From TrEMBL:
<comment type="similarity">
    <text>Belongs to the aldehyde dehydrogenase family.</text>
</comment>
<dbReference type="InterPro" id="IPR016162">
    <property type="entry name" value="Ald_DH_N"/>
</dbReference>
<protein>
    <submittedName>
        <fullName>Succinate-semialdehyde dehydrogenase/glutarate-semialdehyde dehydrogenase</fullName>
        <ecNumber>1.2.1.16</ecNumber>
        <ecNumber>1.2.1.20</ecNumber>
        <ecNumber>1.2.1.79</ecNumber>
    </submittedName>
</protein>
<feature type="domain" description="Aldehyde dehydrogenase">
    <location>
        <begin position="3"/>
        <end position="457"/>
    </location>
</feature>
<keyword id="KW-0521">NADP</keyword>
<dbReference type="InterPro" id="IPR016160">
    <property type="entry name" value="Ald_DH_CS_CYS"/>
</dbReference>
<dbReference type="Pfam" id="PF00171">
    <property type="entry name" value="Aldedh"/>
</dbReference>
<keyword id="KW-0560">Oxidoreductase</keyword>
<dbReference type="GO" id="GO:0036243">
    <property type="term" value="F:succinate-semialdehyde dehydrogenase (NADP+) activity"/>
</dbReference>
<dbReference type="InterPro" id="IPR016163">
    <property type="entry name" value="Ald_DH_C"/>
</dbReference>
<dbReference type="InterPro" id="IPR015590">
    <property type="entry name" value="Aldehyde_DH_dom"/>
</dbReference>
<dbReference type="GO" id="GO:0102810">
    <property type="term" value="F:glutarate-semialdehyde dehydrogenase (NADP+) activity"/>
</dbReference>
<dbReference type="InterPro" id="IPR016161">
    <property type="entry name" value="Ald_DH/histidinol_DH"/>
</dbReference>
<dbReference type="InterPro" id="IPR047110">
    <property type="entry name" value="GABD/Sad-like"/>
</dbReference>
<dbReference type="InterPro" id="IPR044148">
    <property type="entry name" value="ALDH_GabD1-like"/>
</dbReference>
Length: 461
């Protein structure tokens, strides 16, 4: 895949870049290693000052970088600006909380005495250069939620971004440099995916984080396992959205539309499988289908656009294949189900019902504005359908019944359970999944500690 900005709204190639050669990659690896030796000794206040400055600059650049993201991967420009603002917020959160999250911990006095120590503590120390392999769907946010905690912990970052968002990737390197971080603290590697394995094998790279597809996660995990290096993986998701009889059905249907088509439906944590109790199925389905059909699809640079194009032509073809397979298997297309006329990689918001386990759309992640509707006879069947997936990233449940709340928290196989609202990442809450959605956590204190050497310090009596 060429490293290029191709506008998905019209297919026009705007900019192309040459991949970095071996010599340049080697220079950057040496720089990362050398920079870490000194950067690791900086204080939390020093790092926080730099990260606050990066947040200031990002807020100043919000409109400009928003347009860049939109022209690179097609998200509506309002959502692109909101993404930039969210990144600035996360930077400030880690700048303000890192010292507390990574403060020395003291074991209990009883354990210290029992160990024969005069005193003991646990200290969090940085690991070194961390390789981040990041996707195009949230080209700023995916990177910042790794970079902000990694930099505050004293690590340095090497970014291998998706090949279709090179301008955003280069912007991020420039942003941290303008903020005052030493050049080697955060570097973008303009390389193809084929170069990742060799870099991950390099002894100077101490750990890796990847957000992306299951095959990409398997490849990185395999190499990291062979090299005995820490990894965090955030892979695909096919999140359930369960609606029970006690729910506010009208509100649930309204939020369901946003939950499905956020980021043009290209979000791992977008709700994808809508599992509705039979008592409220018809009322929910009517409202949900009407809401999906009414969405404005168009030029993502126009302020009123709600759904833009998919990021690539291949992505649209993959989505079409899932819908066509379901249609051949007997699924009903309640709205959408086709590409509109004209240029660009658009696909109409689509709702499918009558889904069976044999259909690909039941087993695979639909990465675009396609929703599947399921009817559940009771709570037991709702849980069964929700868990009938290889993925386990997040989940959404609409109920006012506290007994049902307890049951869903106990039984849903997911990294998050969001009640009476849609899944959304926040710097204060851990983010990640189970099963084939990956392992490890980003964000919160859990995320910043993922790439730390958790060190026991013991002093004899």
């Amino acid at each position: 895949m060429p490293i290029a900005t191709v506008n998905p709204a019209n297919g026009e190639t705007l900019r192309t870049y040459e991949a970095m050669g071996e010599d340049e990659v080697e220079r950057r690896l040496r720089l990362a290693e050398a920079t870490f030796r000194t950067y690791r000794t900086t204080t939390y206040p020093e790092r926080a000052r730099l990260l606050h400055r990066a947040a200031d600059l990002l807020e100043e650049d919000q409109a400009e970088i928003g347009r860049v993201m939109t022209t690179e991967m097609g998200k509506p420009v309002k959502q692109a600006r909101a993404e930039a603002a969210k990144c600035a917020k996360a930077m400030r959160w880690y700048a303000e909380h890192a010292a507390e999250l990574l403060a020395d911990e003291e074991p209990s006095a009883a354990d210290v005495k029992d160990s024969g120590a005069a005193r003991a503590l646990v200290r969090y120390r940085p690991l070194g250069p961390v390789l981040a392999v990041m996707p195009w769907n949230f080209p700023l946010w995916q990177v910042v939620r790794f970079a902000a905690p990694a930099l505050m912990a004293g690590n340095v970052g090497l970014l291998k971004h998706a090949s279709n968002v090179p301008q955003t990737a280069l912007y991020l390197e420039d942003l941290f440099h303008r903020a005052g971080f030493t050049e080697g603290c955060f570097q973008t590697l303009l390389i193809g995916s084929g170069a990742v394995d060799e870099i991950l094998r390099d002894e100077r790279v101490k750990a890796a984080t990847l957000t992306g597809s299951e095959p990409a996660g398997r490849a990185v995990a395999a190499t990291a396992g062979e090299m005995i290096k820490k990894t965090v993986l955030e892979l695909g998701g096919s999140d359930p959205y369960v609606v029970m009889p006690s729910a506010d059905v009208e509100r649930a249907a309204q939020v369901a539309v946003t939950a499905r088509v956020q980021n043009n439906g290209q979000s791992c944590i977008a709700a994808k499988r809508f599992i509705v109790h039979t008592d409220v199925y018809d009322a929910f389905a009517e409202r949900f289908v009407a809401g999906m059909a009414a969405l404005k699809v168009g030029d993502p640079l126009e302020e009123e656009t709600e759904v833009g194009p998919l990021a690539s032509e291949q992505g649209r073809s993959d989505l079409e294949e899932l819908v066509d397979d379901a249609r051949r298997g007997g699924a009903a297309v309640l709205c959408g189900g086709e590409r509109p006329d004209g240029p660009g990689w658009y696909y109409l918001p689509t709702v499918l019902s009558g889904i069976t386990r044999e259909m690909r759309v039941h087993r695979e992640e639909a990465f675009g504005p396609v929703a599947t509707l399921y009817r559940a006879a009771d709570l037991d069947e709702a849980v069964l359908i929700a868990n009938d997936s290889a993925f386990g990233l997040s989940s959404n449940v609409w109920t006012r019944d506290e007994a049902e709340v307890d049951r869903f928290v106990r039984d849903l196989e997911a990294g998050g359970v969001y009640f009476n609202g849609m899944t959304a990442s926040h710097p204060g809450f851990p983010f990640g999944g189970v099963k084939r959605s990956g392992y490890g956590r980003e964000l919160s204190g859990h995320g910043i500690r993922e790439f730390c050497n958790i060190t026991t310090v013991w002093h004899g009596a």
